[in-house]
From TrEMBL:
<dbReference type="InterPro" id="IPR011013">
    <property type="entry name" value="Gal_mutarotase_sf_dom"/>
</dbReference>
<dbReference type="InterPro" id="IPR017853">
    <property type="entry name" value="GH"/>
</dbReference>
<comment type="similarity">
    <text>Belongs to the glycosyl hydrolase 31 family.</text>
</comment>
<dbReference type="GO" id="GO:0030246">
    <property type="term" value="F:carbohydrate binding"/>
</dbReference>
<dbReference type="InterPro" id="IPR044112">
    <property type="entry name" value="YihQ_TIM-like"/>
</dbReference>
<feature type="domain" description="Glycoside hydrolase family 31 TIM barrel">
    <location>
        <begin position="256"/>
        <end position="561"/>
    </location>
</feature>
<dbReference type="InterPro" id="IPR048395">
    <property type="entry name" value="Glyco_hydro_31_C"/>
</dbReference>
<dbReference type="InterPro" id="IPR013780">
    <property type="entry name" value="Glyco_hydro_b"/>
</dbReference>
<feature type="domain" description="Glycosyl hydrolase family 31 C-terminal">
    <location>
        <begin position="570"/>
        <end position="655"/>
    </location>
</feature>
<keyword id="KW-0326">Glycosidase</keyword>
<dbReference type="GO" id="GO:0005975">
    <property type="term" value="P:carbohydrate metabolic process"/>
</dbReference>
<dbReference type="InterPro" id="IPR000322">
    <property type="entry name" value="Glyco_hydro_31_TIM"/>
</dbReference>
<dbReference type="Pfam" id="PF01055">
    <property type="entry name" value="Glyco_hydro_31_2nd"/>
</dbReference>
<dbReference type="Pfam" id="PF21365">
    <property type="entry name" value="Glyco_hydro_31_3rd"/>
</dbReference>
<dbReference type="GO" id="GO:0004553">
    <property type="term" value="F:hydrolase activity, hydrolyzing O-glycosyl compounds"/>
</dbReference>
<keyword id="KW-0378">Hydrolase</keyword>
<protein>
    <submittedName>
        <fullName>Alpha-glucosidase</fullName>
    </submittedName>
</protein>
Amino acid sequence: MPIQTTSNGFDLVLDGKLLLRHRSDAPCLFVGQGDARMDMYRGNFDIEDYVIERTPLAHAVVSGSDIAFSAAPGQPVRLGLRVSGGDSDLAIAFRTEDASLNRIWLRVPAEQGEHVWGGGEQMSYFDMRGRRFPLWTSEPGVGRDKTTEITFKSDVTGKSGGDYWNTNYPQPTYLSSRRYALHVETTAYSAFDFRKDDFHEVEIWAVPERIEFTSRPTFVALVEAMSERFGRQPPLPDWVYGGAIIGLKDGANSLDRLEAIIAAGTKVSGLWCEDWVGLRHTSFGARLFWDWKANDDRYPGLRQRIAELEDRGIRFLGYVNPYLAVDGSLFPEAEAAGYFATDENGNTALVDFGEFDCGVVDFTNPDAAAWFAERVIGQNMLDFGLSGWMADFGEYLPIDVKLANGVDAKLMHNAWPTLWAEVNARAVESRGKTGEAMFFMRAGFTGVQKHCPLLWGGDQSVDFTRHDGLVTVISGALSSGLLGNAYHHSDIGGYTSLFGNVRTAELIMRWAEMGAFTPVMRTHEGNRPRDNLQIDHDPQVLAHFARMTRVYVHLVPYLKSLVAEASAQGLPVQRPLFLHFEHDARTYAIQDAYLYGPDLLVAPVWHAGKSEWTTYLPEGADWIHAWSSETFVGGREVTVPAPFGQPPVFYRAGSEFSELFAGLRHL
């Protein structure tokens, strides 16, 4: 039994690691009540908690695997824990007879120098130590830095500035450099607080079902365990390996532009036209018409054009989200069947998405979920010929709607992305296309791994900024990858262009260099395509992009080996340096470079105006610079030239793919 009692408390130990330490004068558990204010504005949340009670449960009575907590001897038991598990996995189930409790705080011992990672997809800080991270799915914000003008303006105009912890994909799971993982099984609002030197504090706005601890001897084994726990993704479809997915939303002209892009030597696997459903124009920019079927006016003869592209090895991708515009054709069909979430009066709840209203399809109603999977995704998309799509807006469930399952929307809000992913996956499965059709999501939560084949990093600003630019997608890939999300990618060139912030040629080129070393290369025209440079607007940019697609395709044999590894072991394609160099503590906090599989180290240039770049090479290997063949001994920083087209990339000496990597010089 991992519970070791003492004269005034107990220790909970797993695999020799102290996970909980309770003493009457230093309790590990606090309970109480809170009254939260939660305001939602177009996917952004303003959340504040008024804590009514926070009581330390100082008295603990251990009976076998049960622990009964009360405030003091003789006081009523307020919370009980039951510990179960074996040598390396342990679960703590919670039970309470006190219905008034809606706040739990649990303290986990911390060590000096300990690092913690995870929390879903964290865009600003990969190593979470030293900060507090609320875990609530939302828009991530624009700029995400309160000291910047763009965040200030976004806050003032749309409450959309965000902060370092805002993310589309939170998950109450973290991994420690002590080689254990903690997961909270709950969908309630929660927070990880890593600011204290001697303990981490887990805060939950409900009594959780359980907390799980997983211990493994190595980081690789720990990540494998996370993948097994949360579900393993299907492999990438073979057609993806043909090159980049080109994102255009220019109506029928998209097909003509694609031909010009191909003629420039670009390797192309897909054409992604999110405007396949038509457009509406708002003050934010051109928005899609949220009625999920092909728009014949914008794309005449699209079904035939899709078939013609597929004959050439190019797939067509579209866009969908869980909402239906009131002025679309699907809205009355869903409303007549009672498939929408309702308001407090039982009427269809309408959500303002920025100058247009939508109904929210209620995925807690099995009939509504099945209707969306079959009627919308199955018939209108897969049967029409689409091979993939962006499955957007999983983070938008309003917290004041009424749902068919009767559960408070505040408790379903975090669960929504996973339900949305499941609807998409079931539609794909219904057509026998799992591993063939590919949808990608930015929103996520616990369990999304099992259903979503590909994450995308969301809507970064079109710049090099520290908290919302190019570099943030590396942190997103690394943090989510540790939790079993093997595949991650981003909008090449970024997405959000506001207040005069527009793309530069340099940004697109640097982003494309990184994209060539990710599982999927995909471009996006952004929210204001006409204001921003596109890959086919500038011959130098297009030539550079075409070359990077050839780099991507050149590495396909290696990428396929990584996909096979992901299928077998759940290891992510993009990995933190410490995953394979855990003896080198200098790698633990690096978040602007990554391993692309075990043998390639990629350090994208994420500052403007750079012609050379400095990065750290892990100790324990010799590293060969991909473009010069110069060999560097690991365990030190190196500076290499970084002209356009030659991003800082190194391969491990002795790799079985050395010949392939050496071939990069000749592309």
